[in-house]
Design brief:
This protein is mainly alpha-helical. It has 14 helices and no strands. It is elongated, with a radius of gyration of 23 Å.
Length: 298
């Protein structure tokens, strides 16, 4: 049995309460999101009207409307989301892990939230998993924390467990880490694949990367240079990072003959110590740099 269907009066009341028209969310799309939330929470049973009304009253409907609009690709909604949530997400990332590694996860979430596939077509946004039962900020922190845990699990699976009296066990107990015999191969393969992936980018995407990562311009400064809103810059950078990683993984798989665990180990090794990898050289950026050392978080 299906759970109780929402009637038009309920949907209309919650639509107005959520101010969903601000983001041009169609009433039908908002109704689908509400129904999905009810189905997810209550399941197949048909709840009493009082129970249903109590559940609907508990929803963060404004956040749900914003998520619907962002998933549909509304530019104004996305810019509002970036403006309101980016600093909160970065603070949550810094709380998870200092040194920027968790912040990279925060950046990578934007591509998933926007919902582009590896060809930049179609839309399967991560927002479809947001049902309004918590605030959007709380849900984002939970997603980020889960991504962080998933990454740690992968890294730990890739680390072999040395036998108690083995040479590896003795080396791991010392302060100096044992050399990675595959590091040179990984670095060479990643460097080649990354260079190829960057070279295949659209010139505007390459320029945007160069401004932000090589010239160390802020999102706002990059946006002014490219005549884009800073939220658009953030979204496009996330899309480009995802495209580059997928291209690199494809090359390592098809051309270097690596398995999925080997690819993951390769990324892990290079992330721990990138060595002579020069992003400026790959992006073909000149030697001029900003002297003021801008704040990249703005």
């Amino acid at each position: 049995m299906r759970s109780r269907r929402l009637d038009e009066a309920q949907v209309e009341r919650l639509y107005r309460q959520a101010n969903a028209g601000r983001w041009h969310v169609p009433s039908s799309l908002f109704a689908e999101a509400l129904q999905a939330s009810v189905d997810r929470a209550i399941g197949a049973k048909a709840p009493a009207r009082r129970e249903l009304n109590r559940y609907l009253a508990s929803l963060h409907v404004e956040d749900l409307a914003l998520a619907c609009a962002c998933a549909a690709g509304d530019e104004a909604a996305w810019e509002h989301f970036i403006r309101e949530q980016r600093s909160r997400l970065y603070r949550a990332a810094d709380a998870l892990a200092r040194g920027g590694r968790a912040r990279e996860l925060a950046d990578s979430l934007y591509a998933e939230l926007y919902g582009l596939d590896n060809r930049g077509k179609g839309r399967q946004s991560l927002f479809r998993y947001f049902h309004g039962r918590s605030s959007l900020a709380t849900w984002l922190r939970a997603v980020l924390a889960q991504r962080h845990v998933d990454r740690l699990r992968v890294e730990r699976r890739l680390e072999p467990l040395p036998e108690e009296e083995s040479t590896a066990a003795i080396a791991s107990a010392s302060t100096a880490p044992a050399p990675d015999p595959d590091r040179s191969r990984c670095l060479t393969a990643i460097r080649h694949a990354l260079g190829q992936a960057v070279a295949r980018l659209d010139p505007r995407d390459r320029l945007r990367l160069g401004c932000y990562y090589a010239q160390e311009l802020t999102l706002a400064e990059t946006g002014r240079l490219l005549l884009e809103h800073e939220a658009t810059v953030s979204r496009q950078l996330a899309r480009t990072r995802r495209a580059i990683r997928e291209d690199v993984e494809r090359q390592l798989r098809a051309e270097a003959g690596m398995s999925e665990p080997q690819i993951a180990q390769c990324f892990h090794s290079v992330m721990e110590d990138p060595g002579p990898l020069d992003v400026r050289e790959m992006l073909d950026v000149g030697g001029e740099r900003k002297e003021s050392g801008p704040d990249r978080s703005s």
